[in-house]
Design goal:
This protein is an alpha/beta fold. It has a domain at about 5-185 and about 235-265: 3-Layer(aba) Sandwich (Rossmann fold). Helices cover about 40% and strands about 15% of the residues. Helix 3 runs parallel beside helix 5 (about 95-115). The two termini are about 35 Å apart. The model has no long low-confidence stretch (mean pLDDT about 95).
Length: about 350
């Protein structure tokens, strides 16, 4: 019987792609999501791709009793914890909402993982934990700076909670995956980023502008000390990112992880400016984008990209997709989801 893996935030962008990767690697994923920023119908696309109907719970993870019911009904081997509010700008405006949701949900799932003797806990962290870094590429040892937003702070706190909780016990092991900027869509064209609230990430904003859902898009700041004045980020294809979660899970379950908690950066190791990403889209699709320059956004940092040598060496993770693949798959998905 295949091992059951609870995927929190399972109907979200990265969660749904990870569910597919888990199925393709012999696991039985169970999805839980409260639907705040996603729709359970996304699992229909997962079923179309994999032929598997995934069991799903519409539950708020801050509700301990309802969440515990899942652990009672299933023998959970591993947990992949994505569920969190994640918009940087919104977190600046609504810090208490972010702290309550992101921290309470983690505490619930972590406590239940210990209580029900789960073996592996994979935490969806973020490069935002590094804060406004002094230089890039960053490694896992790069010192954390002050978080640039309440969202980033919840990820720093989340990592610390997991490390403190697991430091002096040896049954549950955790991996903290610090990812950079997930983007793109499943190569089938059947699944991609579909936020139920207005898209805040650059790539869906680009595709929504290209298809006419937005009249234009804004580039927030072109006066940074970078190649062209716009912010630099490390964009990673969502299918590469999803596979890293499966590899991290397998790494723990195979007994290869010695310490209670380990940390990996997930990026493609190259920075692209906002203007370069726009150019890559225009060249890949032959579509010109309507954009304007706007003032800097609070909470944005100038430049950050990854050194992923550790994930390559220990997990055997090698990203396969480039920025052009991200743009091509994101555009195919945008055209398809507009018709859904």
């Amino acid at each position: 019987m295949s091992k059951k893996v609870l995927v929190t935030g399972g109907t979200g962008y990265i969660g749904s792609h990870t569910i597919i990767d888990l199925i393709e690697n012999g696991f039985t994923p169970i999805s839980v999501d409260n639907g705040v920023n996603s729709m359970a119908s996304i699992l229909d696309q997962v079923s179309s791709i994999t032929g598997i109907t995934v069991e799903h719970y519409n539950i708020d993870l801050c509700d301990f009793a309802k969440t515990e019911q899942i652990f009672k009904e299933h023998e959970i081997t591993g947990v992949i914890h994505f569920a969190a509010l994640k918009a940087v700008g919104e977190s600046v405006e609504q810090p208490l909402r972010y702290f309550k949701n992101n921290i309470d949900s983690l505490l619930t799932v972590l406590e239940l993982s210990q209580k029900y003797q789960v073996k592996a806990f994979i935490f969806s962290s973020s490069c935002t934990v590094y804060g406004d870094v002094l230089s890039s590429p960053v490694t896992e040892e790069t010192p954390m700076q002050e978080a640039a937003s309440p969202y980033g702070r919840t990820k720093q706190i989340g990592e610390q909670i997991i490390s403190d909780t697991l430091a002096h016990q040896n049954k549950l092991k955790a991996v903290l995956l610090r990812y950079f900027n997930p983007a793109g869509a499943h190569t089938s064209g059947l699944l991609g980023e579909a936020p139920s609230t207005p898209a805040a990430n650059l790539v869906p904003v680009i595709t929504e502008t290209a298809i006419g859902k937005r009249e234009s898009m804004s580039i927030f700041g072109t006066d940074y000390d970078t190649r062209d004045g716009s912010c630099i980020r490390d964009y990673i294809h969502v299918m590469d990112l999803a596979h890293a979660h499966t590899l991290a899970l397998q790494h723990i379950l195979s007994g290869k992880q010695d310490q209670p908690v380990d940390i990996y950066n997930l990026g493609i190791g190259q920075g692209a400016t906002v203007l370069e990403v726009i150019k890559a889209f225009e060249e890949t699709t032959q579509i010109k984008l309507n954009y304007q320059i706007a003032p800097r956004r609070p909470g944005d940092i100038m430049a950050i990209f990854a050194n992923y040598d550790k994930a390559k060496e220990k997990l055997g993770w090698n990203p396969k997709y480039k920025i052009q693949d991200i743009m091509r798959t994101a555009w195919v998905w945008e055209q398809k989801r507009t018709k859904l």
